[in-house]
Amino acid sequence: MSLSPLFHEMPPKMRTRHAQIHSACRPIRGSRKRLSSTSRMSVGPMEAKIGGLAQSCLRLLNAASHHRENV
User: Fold this and answer.
1) In terms of Cα–Cα distance, which of 33, 28, 19 is closest to 48?
2) Which residue of 8, 25, 50, 61 shows the fewest CB atoms closer than 10 Å?
3) Which residue has the higher pLDDT, 58 or 38?
4) Which tens digit of pLDDT belongs to each residue from 3-49?
5) In degrees rounded to 5, what are phi and psi of residue 6?
6) Domain boundaries, the chain
7) Which long-range contacts (CB under 8 A, 24 or more apart) does 50-59 make?
């Protein structure tokens, strides 16, 4: 499921926060390319978890945005 609609619903300040999270994840993902193939296999699950955390953060930011609108 694409989370793009959630991102675009959020106010600019929340989008900036999510972009900062992606910026923090980028070097972690980029460092994988420098590893040996054996090491990459062991890092793969960790990379998936990082992606899951970024998605969860997007959902939480979106929920916080909706909460602020309704309070």
Assistant:
1) 28
2) 8
3) 58
4) 888 888 888 988 999 899 888 888 877 787 788 888 888 887 888 88
5) -60, -45
6) 4-70
7) 50/25, 51/25, 54/18, 54/21, 54/22, 54/25, 55/3, 57/18, 57/21, 58/3, 58/6, 58/7, 58/18, 59/3, 59/6
Single-letter amino acid, residue 3:
L
Confidence of residue 1 (pLDDT cuts 50, 70, 90): low
11 and 62 Cβ atoms separated by less than 8 Å:
no
- Record the tokens describing residue 46, joined without a space: 């960790």
Sign of the four-CA dihedral 5, 24, 26, 42: negative
